[in-house]
Every structure is written in C-alpha cells, then in structure tokens.
C-alpha cells in the first residue's frame, strides 16, 4: 500500500482493484466533507471506513452508492465508471443504520422485495428467498412481522434484503449500532462468516474502533474529509502513523520527548523524556533528527505494575502513586500519578481471582514496560 502527501491510498498489488476512487471531493456550504481522496479496494475485502462524527465517512459511502454526487473525481466499480450512473442502476446495494424494514411486510416479503420489483419469476423468488433465509439464520421466521422480531433478527432481515439481488458490492452504514453489546459481538462474527460464503465485497462505515478491528480485512481511518491511515487492524493499532491515529484506536499514554539519535538504517531510536532524564529506546520507520521533538506513545495494556521496581536495559520504569482505579471484571484500570510524567493509565488483566485486591488507592507503585512497546510519533 502506498501512502503519500496527496492523501492517496492506492494498493500496489498486481491485481486490478475492484473499486478505484480517484481525486474524489464533496463539499457542503464551501466546507469539504470529502477532500480529494484516492483509494483502491480489492474484490472480496471486508473494508471498513472508520472515523468520528463529521469526518466524511458516510458522505463517502453515499457517493459510492450514488445517493450523493461528487464535486469532482471518479468512482470505478469492477472496471465500470460510476459517474453519471443512477443509484438504482449500480451493481451496489446499501444497508442503512435504521435497517428500513417494511413494517407491513413479513420476513419473506421484506427479503423478496427487490426480486419482486424486478419481476423475477415466482418460483425463482421462492427458491432464492428460502436460501437467503437459511443463510442469514432466520429459519422458520419467514411469516413473522417486523414487530415480532428482536433487534438482531431485524438486522438479519435487512441484510438478507440487501443481499438477495446478489450485488457485487454491499455498503453497510453503522450496521451494528442499534444492537446491544453482546449481540453486537455475536453478529460481528456472523457477518464475517456470511461474507466468506458470498462473492460480494463489503464496505462498512462505523465509528466503533473495536467493531472495525474485529470485522475488517483493512481499515481506512478518516478525519476532516481525508484518510489519516490505511492498513490491516494490527498495523494501525500497533504502529499508528500519528498521534490522532494512536489516540483514536483505544487508549494510549503520551510522553513528550526529544530525539537523541536515530539510525535510519536500523530504525533504532533513542529519546529523552522532557520531564526527566529517562532515556526511551525502540524502533521507528518515521524519520527523525537529533534534537527533534517526538511524542512517545505506550498502550495501557503494554504496561506492568508492581510494588517494587528493578532496573533493566530492556525496560523503562517510572515511579508513582495510584490516583484512581476501576474494576472491570476481566481487568483493572489504574490511573497513576507519576513523579515527573503526569498521569499514566495501566490496564492489568485479572488472571487470578485474588489479584484485584493487592493494589489499592494511594499505594506507591512502579510502572514498567518493554522497549518494543514504544511508538514514536511526530508532534
């Protein structure tokens, strides 16, 4: 994948992209909702566009669907230019956040709607809808009305209706937002399994970081109408490109530092924390010079916490006092006021039942982490 200053995210893979977006822009009241973006998506991907409210992700999805018209740029799907093609003539279907299930139709008729509108023979409609009902796990519910269904079942009806015409591309706008946490987690895996059974490319829009990481083959993180970073979930989480990307995905502790040295051949870097004389080392592909300001990021779950500290060349150790703690059942979250480096968050797994009782509010503790946990970010 190539990333450059023109906000291009175009794969360098040999195979021709299934979706090609070039120099796409859209503005409302002279403010760009989508600002000159470029993107390649390959056939069979479950690709997620992730970002906060107002970042432009839904506008981008609506332009791909043909609901919004771009100011400039082009969208190509499976080798065919989409500019000027009406939404109902594109090889695309879209599932909206509200599901938009017809309240006066039962499950069977809701799913069959697209086939009936295009005058598909009745015997073929019955065959295809019966197959889809099994695929989306709504067996024996074909005569139920929408008001007799749970939230998860309504979501499957909407999904079945969106897939029944076998679109080449399915767009999903916040598809799991209306579900409770447990059902959302269950449905994520069902959605992945469903995609793997179909010859359809999925593009999902969401603001939920965990949902994006669970579902996606790749993620595009958006902010202010542009892509900040694109990559597989582990790449964006472990090696964010900047402070915004690091902070958007989960929690991260940030330390202001100054670069002492950076070896461009080995990527090894050494920096000194501004608030103390502690040296931080690690590796980075970002380019720094001696004396540059740098932000060092460390995820809370990468930190260890104990009541005694031992010096190691491979570890960084800070001393502090527990200011707040929260018990989440499977983990504890500690906010620790350090002597020189502000408040640091530590997430500790409850591996043993008795572990949660050892550390208390106001305890003096030591925080430690491996050098490999350090992420060096441009400030």
Automatic annotation (TrEMBL):
Write down the top EC class of this protein. translocase
PROSITE patterns found in the cross-reference section = ABC_TRANSPORTER_1, ABC_TRANSPORTER_2
Q: Which domain of life is it from?
A: Bacteria
Indicate whether Ribonucleoprotein appears among the record's keywords. no
- Record's catalysed reaction(s): ATP + H2O + polyamine-[polyamine-binding protein]Side 1 = ADP + phosphate + polyamineSide 2 + [polyamine-binding protein]Side 1
Q: Which GO-annotated molecular functions does the record name?
A: ABC-type polyamine transporter activity; ATP binding; ATP hydrolysis activity
GO CC annotation terms, alphabetical: ATP-binding cassette (ABC) transporter complex
Q: Does Lipid metabolism show up as a keyword for this record?
A: no
GO biological process: what's one of them?
Answer: putrescine transport
The EC number on file is 7.6.2.11
Q: Which Pfam families match?
A: ABC_tran, TOBE_2
Q: Which residues form the ABC transporter domain?
A: 19-249
Q: Which UniProt keywords apply?
A: ATP-binding, Cell inner membrane, Cell membrane, Membrane, Nucleotide-binding, Translocase, Transport
Tell me the protein family, please: Belongs to the ABC transporter superfamily. Spermidine/putrescine importer (TC 3.A.1.11.1) family.
Q: How does it assemble?
A: The complex is composed of two ATP-binding proteins (PotA), two transmembrane proteins (PotB and PotC) and a solute-binding protein (PotD).
Its biological purpose is as follows: Part of the ABC transporter complex PotABCD involved in spermidine/putrescine import. Responsible for energy coupling to the transport system.
Q: What is this protein called?
A: Spermidine/putrescine import ATP-binding protein PotA
Q: Which organism is it from?
A: SAR92 clade bacterium
